[in-house]
Amino acid sequence: MRIPDEQPFVPVILGGDIGAYSMAREFHQEYGAISVLVPTVITGIIDHSRILEPRPFSAQDDDAAFARFVAGLGREFGELVAGPRPLLLLGAADQHIRFIARNAEALGEWFTIPYVGEEVLDRATGKDDFYALCSRLQIPYPATVDFDCAPGADDPATLAARLAAESVPFPAIVKPSDGVAWGALDFAGKKKVHTVASAAELTGLIRDASAAGYTGTLVIQDLIPGDDSGMHLVTFFSDRSGEVRFASTGRVIVEEHAPGALGNSAAIVAEPNETAVREGAKMLKELGWTGFSMFDMKRDPRDGSYRFFEINPRLGRNHFYVTAAGHNVARFYVEEYLHGGLAGAPGLTVAQDRHLYTILPLRLLRRYVPADMKAGVEQLIAAKRYSHPLYYARETNPRRWYYILASSVNHYRKFKRHHPAA
């Protein structure tokens, strides 16, 4: 597939997961635009799609080679006989946003880049920096201890005392401050997020991560009680002046528990949450943020607070819950960055409509809906107010629908193997 010359702009999306496909769908729904997707390999999520042009590049960890490849896409799709065409450069994962920030000056020749620069990115996305920001703004977060894995930096022998002093008991949550570096590691038992039951298990994890080459910080936290449905999220859009213009909140029903996907939402109910909007907007204003961002948080049943975990410097993997509830995210990119600014009066718009987002078959999803959400979820299903990002009627290739069917069946296998009993 070629991008038609008459298409007025082209989204170039780095990545090939369900979040990248969701962005391509959103641009197609709103503007009829075909997007260019740049995965490492073509998977069933994007294969046989009629709404995107896949351009895989496997060596995305080679910064210089990847930058040359992306610049080549800029020349190919931006230079027309009639004159230059606007291109949006977007990323579906944290490593893509880092890559774009590092290469913004060179790639800015071809692309409009709707992300913050490296300085703001550094202040926001390192988990130790993020929690320092929360502390300064008096925003709740889990009790936390940072452990620096760089050789000679911190002493594992004194870690237990530090955890006790900060009221971080076992079992505890352990996650990397540098998610990009962690993703490149390979060691037995590695997970996106670990739960450790004892000091000995924590010391073993530190040893294995250090031996694998991790030299960043590990964040060790109080394990907030409760199941997946205690998780909440909020997606924001801030205009180029740093004013927070839009927010959409959601409550998670169930997350994935397979090691490589641990913590990824599998079903979300979009619904209002005033606390999440108020606290998240406070942080964005402090940072001078521009573009999209997303916060994860969990409601602590011990005191009713919402404890913030991190900021994603982009649309989240499951951001389609925002579009499904009536606010197509593609419009914000195009209006603010290509058409001169968001339409309408300044000020914050907060999404209010409830909608069910799910990547699970409804029959499987119903097994995991908590008691206090059952009635509301059934009402949304009965009213046909639910969406799956891959179920797009404009996709007509039967091979693609076969993949979606097989993927649905595979969810039953994955949840039977990895998910705790409902």
UniProtKB/TrEMBL annotation:
EC category name: ligase
Top-rank taxon, per record: Bacteria
EC number: 6.3.1.12
InterPro entries tied to this protein: ATP-grasp (IPR011761)
UniProt KW Heme keyword: no
Keywords, alphabetical: ATP-binding, Ligase, Nucleotide-binding
Ranges where the ATP-grasp domain occurs: 131-338
Gene Ontology MF term list: ATP binding; D-aspartate ligase activity; metal ion binding
Protein name: D-aspartate ligase
Organism field: Paeniglutamicibacter cryotolerans
